[in-house]
Amino acid sequence: MAQNLLSRAKLLIVDDEPSNVRLLERLLELNGHPTLRSTTDSRQALTLLLEFEPDLVLLDLHMPHLDGFAVLEQIKIAVPEDRHFPVLVLTADITPETKRRAFLAGAKDFVTKPLDHAEVILRINNLLENRFLHFELQEQNALLEQQVRIRTAQLENTLTQLRSTQDQV
């Protein structure tokens, strides 16, 4: 199932270091993920997010122009609260304060550089699985709500008919 998730998901990479972007692109391609967009300019992140509509963002924190925290803030504003939208932070900054700030800003997971390739793929797969399960749950809830509305209307109809019959007696 995890391989299937990775192959059908869209990922956006935002990192100011071209070598990091190339490494992530290659790692993802080797693991069956062909649908990627990337940028080394964090100022393009929001535009790419809105145009590409990725399922997951891989985000560096320390970048010129807009740092990862500013990008997380943009994502928070752009993505509706009821949508489960994962952001995986990839950073060399291992301080507890940075990790805390990243999670408070909306990151769903955090991996430190240098990257352990297997760990990155596993965390991506976990985040994607959670995202797609969240969508399935939303669909099931909508279906159940529709069934409740239909059944409620049927019961109200039956009650109206019973009252009408009682009034006639």
Describe the structure.
There is one protein chain. With about 170 residues, the protein is of the alpha/beta class. The protein has six helices and five strands. It has a five-stranded parallel beta sheet, sandwiched between helices. The chain is elongated, with a radius of gyration of 22 Å. The N and C termini lie far apart (about 60 Å). The mean pLDDT is about 90.
Going by helix content, strand content and strand pairing, the class is: alpha/beta
Mean pLDDT: 90
Helix proportion range: 55-70%
User: What topology, given as strand order, has the largest sheet?
Assistant: 2-1-3-4-5
| Secondary-structure element order, N to C | HEHEHEHEHEH
The parts where pLDDT drops under 50 for at least 5 residues are none
- Approximately what portion of the residues adopt beta-strand conformation? 5-15%
> What kind of sheet is the major sheet?
5 strands, parallel
Radius of gyration: 22 Å
Shape: elongated
Let me know the number of strands.
5
Question: How far from one another are the termini?
Answer: 62 Å
If helices are DSSP runs of H or I spanning 4 or more residues, what is the number of helices? 6
